[in-house]
Automatic annotation (TrEMBL):
Protein name as catalogued: Serine/threonine-protein kinase NLK-like protein
Keyword Nucleotide-binding carried by entry: yes
Highest rank taxon of the organism: Eukaryota
Cross-referenced InterPro entries: Kinase-like_dom_sf, MAP_kinase_CS, MAPK, Prot_kinase_dom, Ser/Thr_kinase_AS
Keywords: ATP-binding, Kinase, Nucleotide-binding, Serine/threonine-protein kinase, Transferase
Catalytic activity: L-threonyl-[protein] + ATP = O-phospho-L-threonyl-[protein] + ADP + H(+); L-seryl-[protein] + ATP = O-phospho-L-seryl-[protein] + ADP + H(+)
Domain spans labelled Protein kinase: 1-188
The keyword Transferase is assigned to this record: yes
Pfam families registered for this protein in UniProt: Pkinase
Molecular function in Gene Ontology: ATP binding; MAP kinase activity; protein serine kinase activity
Originating organism: Euroglyphus maynei (Mayne's house dust mite)
């Protein structure tokens, strides 16, 4: 993780992600095995987090010429749902589920990664959450419409979009702007 102390927002994001990676213990969620200490604390600019080796991600597989059988799709979808159930049981909203954040190895083991935008779901509904989460193509309609309060359904919408992408080998709703994205959802 380079330039971790570039600004306060990126520092908080990195801290939150490392905290979560250290907590996670699930077959389908990436976890930190170790964190390397910097040699000189005064020149601490990067953090090295050791995780299990994953050779690829789901995006690279989708855009490749490698055949995807119905069994592959079932195995991938099952693992995504298992990992997400674990996160949601811990009241964690990932908020950026997309094929590039789903790591895969040569045995078809899948792990959810990239927790920089993840948040613990609040019981306090007076606290607004940002709508600028989730890559636009996988963003739930309520986020596109400006919702400030949401729950795990936004992650489930993203998984539905990924499922369709696995089947069709292309992004289901691909627009340039959030307004165009809403229009493509309506006209689908």
């Amino acid at each position: 993780m380079p330039n971790v102390f570039q600004n306060l927002i990126s520092s908080k994001r990195v801290f939150r992600e490392i905290k979560m990676l250290s907590f996670f213990k699930h077959d389908n969620v990436l976890s930190a095995l170790d964190i390397l200490q910097p040699p000189l604390i005064n020149f601490f600019q990067e953090i090295y987090v050791i995780t299990e080796l994953m050779e690829s991600d789901l995006h690279k597989i989708i855009v490749s010429s490698q055949p995807l059988t119905p069994d592959h799709i079932k195995v991938f979808l099952y693992q995504i749902l298992r990992g997400l159930k674990y996160l949601h049981s811990a009241r964690i909203l990932h908020r950026d589920i997309k094929p590039g954040n789903l790591l895969v190895n040569s045995n078809c083991l899948l792990k959810i990664c990239d927790f920089g935008l993840a948040r613990v779901e609040e019981n306090d509904r007076s606290r607004k959450m940002t709508q600028e989460v989730v890559t636009q193509y996988y963003r739930a309609p309520e986020l596109l419409m400006g919702a400030k309060y949401y729950h795990e359904a936004i992650d489930m919408w993203s998984i539905g979009c990924i499922f369709a992408e696995l089947l069709g080998r292309q992004i289901l709703f691909q627009a340039q702007t959030p307004i165009q994205q809403v229009n493509s959802l309506i006209s689908f």
